[in-house]
Amino acid sequence: MTMIMTHSSRTSSPSSFTLPAPAPLLSGAGWGAFLLALIVVCAVAPALNLLVPVDSALHLSDYAVALIGKIMCYAIVALAMDLIWGYTGILSLGHGLFFALGGYVMGMYLMRQIGRDGNYKSDLPDFMVFLDWKALPWHWALSDSFVATLLLIVLVPGLVALVFGFFAFRSRIKGVYFSIITQAMTFAAMLLFFRNETGFGGNNGFTDFKRILGLPIATPSMRMTLFVLTGLTLLGFFLMARWLIRSKFGRVLQAIRDAESRVMFSGYNPLPYKLTIWTLSAVMCGVAGALYVPQVGIINPSEMSTAASIEMAVWAAVGGRATLIGPVIGAFIVNGAKSWLTVTAPEFWLYFLGALFIAVTLYLPHGVVGLVKKIREGGGK
């Protein structure tokens, strides 16, 4: 009897087993691909654009730099969509608002950087002079400070998302109802920004940017600097999202996606988890919008349109939800196709987008990444 009790106490001792070691952030092949992307963004692309002669077949044109830079901004948004939709199960059709808010904050700073070089040679932006404004409105007070602009790029989308998400999630609005109210929120904001008296440039928005931090914005070196910053931001957000999803916080998010009621019965309150990831996703979109504006050269209310927010969901769906890399790939595929089709057959682009979304929903529920995995598994059998 004594021997049995001793054996039982030994087997039940905490020292008789060890927890498995946490999995690495990326596999060996994953780190290799990440370093390759880092080298391409920081070294290969700048060399091909700035050092290789224009008449060379290896030259990366300024148009290609601007296009890839723009798509990388969209890829950040797609990554943010994956966190909130793919891993938490919350479909937002209003992320275009957060993207536009970050863009408008940066646009306000860039408009102040024009100084007296505008058409009316005034300290006020040209559209304010045209509308006979005598002074800057109150919400332009910090627009001449680059540091304040960086803070507002994070704070403005973050606070809007925090307030909206708190009331929506506390009311337990979910599913299609949540998608509808996010779309309604974005549409209402678009109508507000269309009004001239709000001080956001109305229908035309902000454009004709000339400088950033006192340096000319249209030079090849500045264009490439913005390109590299966008690439580094995308890679940094990818690592952050990867770490977040593999943490306990990320596992709770996936549990909320799969069975929120069971999470509540287990003693977890879903509200702070959903609110945190919702706000973080909005901030990522705001940063993407801020990087987008100086590269594209314009920001207007069309970025808050219903179609723009739906496209963001399409990027995630095409690439493959709940994969992180899938939505990034989806953003490149869809926007690359858009860039080509809007030139060769612009009247068919929206039909193509709708058909693509239907096809992915019916035949590729796990997106391109899921298709690749299926082909690999089939080839290995």
Primary descriptors:
single chain, 381 residues, mainly alpha, two-stranded antiparallel sheet, 69% helix, disordered N terminus
Strand and helix map with partners:
Blueprint: H1 2-11, H2 28-51, H3 62-86, H4 95-113, H5 126-130, H6 146-170, H7 175-194, E1 206-207, E2 211-212, E3 215-216, H8 220-246, H9 248-265, H10 270-296, E4 298-299, H11 306-319, H12 325-344, H13 349-363, H14 367-380
Antiparallel strand pairs: 1-4, 2-3
Model description:
This protein has about 375 residues and is an all-alpha fold. It is about 70% helix and about 0% strand. The protein contains 14 helices and four strands. A two-stranded antiparallel ribbon has the order 1-4. The longest helix is centred in the middle third of the chain and has 27 residues, at about 220-245. The radius of gyration is 24 Å and the shape is globular. The N and C termini lie far apart (about 55 Å). Mean pLDDT is about 90; it is low at about 1-15.
Briefly characterize the structure.
The protein is mainly α and 381 residues long. Helices cover 69% and strands 2% of the residues.
Mean pLDDT across all residues, rounded? 91
**What global shape is seen?**
globular
Helix and strand composition category: mainly alpha
Tally the beta strands: 4
H-E string: HHHHHHHEEEHHHEHHHH
The percent of residues in helical segments reads 55-70%
Q: Strand order, biggest sheet? A: 1-4
Q: Percent of residues in beta strands?
A: under 5%
Output the radius of gyration: 24 Å
Low-confidence runs: 1-15
Oligomeric state of the chains?
single chain
